[in-house]
Amino acid sequence: MKIKDLRIHSIAIADPPLRSSYGLHAPYALRTIIELESEDGVIGINETYGGESPAAALRGIRSKIIGADAFRVTGTINPAMEKFKVNGLDRSQTFLVPGENPLDESTRTYAAIEVACLDLIGKSVGVPVCDLIGGRVRDKVPFSAYPFYKHAGGGGEGNDLREDEYGEALSPEMLVVQVKQMIKKYGFTSIKFKAGVLKPEEEIETVKQMYQEFGPEVPLRIDPNSAWTVTTSVKVGKALSRELSGGGYLEDPTAGIQGMAAVRKELLACGVEVPLASNVAVTSFKDLPATVAHDAVQIILCDHHYWGGMRQVQHLAKLAETFNIGLSMHSNSHLGISLMAMAHVAAATPHLTYACDTHYPWQSEKDEVVKGGRIRIKDGCVAIPEKPGLGVELDYDQLERGKERYRNVPYKKRDDEAEMRKHVDPSWTRVLPRW
Ligand code: GKR
Ligand code: MG
Asked: What is the atom index within ligand 1 of the atom nearest the CA of 330?
């Protein structure tokens, strides 16, 4: 099946002012939507990181895609994936916001094409993607609530403002209200809380209040994106040993594999068995030997967008299972195509041991580019539809609106530090560790 065209669309979607150790989300998040069209007019679609550099990388590979066979093209471009595998470079994401790491550009680009190809093939042969890549082991994929400290505002700018559905949330009490609202709307049964923003004592208190409110049957995770020293991480792990047990975890409390290993060792020495999870210290296959050797991470948060696509996530899952490491899924601000791709790969991955992350509740209907509007999350789950490919089509009017927003935004990459300086503190810089 020959590929006739590859179309790359840069779009901007409204994003609320969410905080993390990276800084502050800008009023718009950037995404790239791609279309692969076969000679017989079938269109495969996908969504990936946005801004100029991911789009340029895709444009750079265009000549290899046009005219190629959709069944073979991922094999043909495979060497691009190998680029950074053997040269000893550190692929770590610790100091860079996701999507802005030049070292995983090749795996991100490969993944973007792979998933679009799978959608194209699925749509051509009438089979859902999860069944193409090994067959579903579940029909519904669980996701978790993803509360953030946030400033007032729903995203967008000028006369393009979105409703501020969740309001300001800069205290433990406000975070509890935010989660309640999210659970009521989507039915989530676990919570992943973005920390690394306020003093650790306040973040401990936030988790305690969530535990108090939702009880031990709702697993809790806390993720400060490496904002803490080893000592602070151990202190927080000890303080929250009850709240983070029973299906919860402590995610990337500190930087690097060695740092994580030190936290794990100290926690175990104190009798605290709360597992450590990571999507920052462990971001590539090259990180696995040291991770296993030092017992640095007990749960890996996979992400097909930068691990190199769906099949690499399945390889990762097998390796994780082999070494008795759990698997969860990382997310970044995204729309429905990414959500469906995450759901399909999760559906076809037996060793998925935790509910996946998703930023989806933070995005608005007004920005969705999927025909028919937003994907439904019910009882905290995304159901895999009996439709071919990813099960979604593009709404071209909505896509055009997204492209127009992109043309109008002055920034063409994610820069949470710059946003912090603009809106919160003119002298703010990301310091790791901060506490
Ligand atoms: O959206 O600010 C954010 C998150 O901090 C995101 O950038 C992280 O990549 O959600 C992610 C995580 O789990 O680390
Ligand atoms: Mg994380």
From this structure: 13
Task: Give the pLDDT confidence of 75-113 residue by residue, as tens digits.
Answer: 888 766 655 454 444 566 777 787 888 888 888 999 999
φ, ψ for residue 374, nearest 5 deg: -65, 150
Residue ranges of domains in the chain, CATH in brackets:
3-127+398-408 (3.30.390.10), 132-393 (3.20.20.120)
pLDDT of 247 > 60? The answer is yes
Give the Å distance between the CA of 301 and the centre of ligand 1.
Answer: 11
Interatomic CA distance for residues 149 and 161, integer angstroms = 20
CA distance 301 to 362: 20
The phi and psi torsions of 307 (rounded to 5 degrees) equal -80, -5
- Catalogue the active-site residues: 194, 330
What's the predicted TM-score (pTM) here?
0.97
- Residues with beta carbon inside 6 Å of ligand 1? 18, 20, 22, 97-98, 194, 223, 225, 279, 330-333, 357
- Per-residue pLDDT tens for 368-394? 999 999 999 999 999 999 999 999 999
